[in-house]
Design a protein that fits this description.
The chain has 199 residues and is of the alpha/beta class. Helix content is 30%, strand content 23%. The protein has a six-stranded mixed beta sheet with strand order 2-1-3-4-5-6. The structure holds 2'-deoxyinosine 5'-triphosphate and magnesium ion (MG). The site of 2'-deoxyinosine 5'-triphosphate (Y43) has 21 residues, from strand 3.
Length: 199
């Protein structure tokens, strides 16, 4: 089976990419599955695009093959777009999902239902040695719940209610999430490139 390397150490993202790519008979391989030990890549950019490019290009340079990276996050209107690009480390360098959720819920104390609008954003970068990078962006609109619910997914899923649903992303099955997510909405735009990988 054809393989594509995904420049991520996030197990939740890796699982979603495996599911998306399996439909094209491509195996998505994350950094934790490579034989090499790969140091954490410093995400020094100030935009999703910059960080996605940093991750994809540094691994593509190392592996000398095409590499896909995902930089994503949660943008909350009442917090002026925060945590945004800093979503993973919002409550500190330890990248703790629970601490991040607690911080968001704390900051939104007293913010009413109609003011809790937010979106997940995902920027994908494909780095191909010797070629310009390809970027695709997807989003998923919703609101921030008043408390956590659900066990599925990862990150901020337990507090994100997608528009049109009355449950959180973490209460959806992975199949349901993968139909509506920001990641899905970005990946569909790469379909032509993905299909070409199999030729
Ligand atoms: O579908 C999602 N459902 C819930 N939360 C999500 C989602 N997608 C991104 N997020 C959150 C998780 C993390 O707090 C940040 C991504 O940060 P981001 O730097 O892109 O990923 P990461 O550091 O976890 O892994 P890596 O850089 O190795 O891909 O946004
Ligand atoms: Mg990261």
């Amino acid at each position: 089976m054809k393989e594509i390397i995904i420049a991520t150490k996030n197990a939740g993202k890796a699982k979603e990419f495996k599911s998306f790519f399996s439909a094209y008979h491509i195996e998505a391989i994350s950094l934790s599955e490579l034989d090499k030990d790969i140091d954490d890549i410093e995400e020094t950019g100030t935009t999703f695009e910059e960080n996605a490019a940093i991750k994809a290009q540094s691994i593509a340079g190392m592996m000398r093959c095409p590499v896909l990276a995902d930089d994503s996050g949660l943008m909350i209107d009442a917090l002026n777009g925060r945590p945004g690009v800093y979503s993973a480390r919002y409550a500190g360098e330890q990248k703790d999902d629970q601490a991040n959720i607690d911080k968001v819920l704390y900051e939104l104390k007293g913010v009413g239902a109609s003011e809790r609008t937010a979106r997940f954003v995902c920027v994908l970068a494909v780095a191909i040695p010797g070629e310009p990078a390809i970027f695709k962006k997807g989003s998923c609109e919703g609101t921030i719940a008043f408390s956590e619910a659900g066990e599925n997914g990862f990150g901020y899923d337990p507090i994100f209610i997608p528009n049109g649903y009355n449950k959180t992303m973490a209460q959806l099955s992975s199949a349901e999430k993968n139909k509506i997510s920001h990641r899905k909405n970005a990946i569909v735009q790469l379909e032509d490139w993905v299909k070409n990988q199999n030729k």
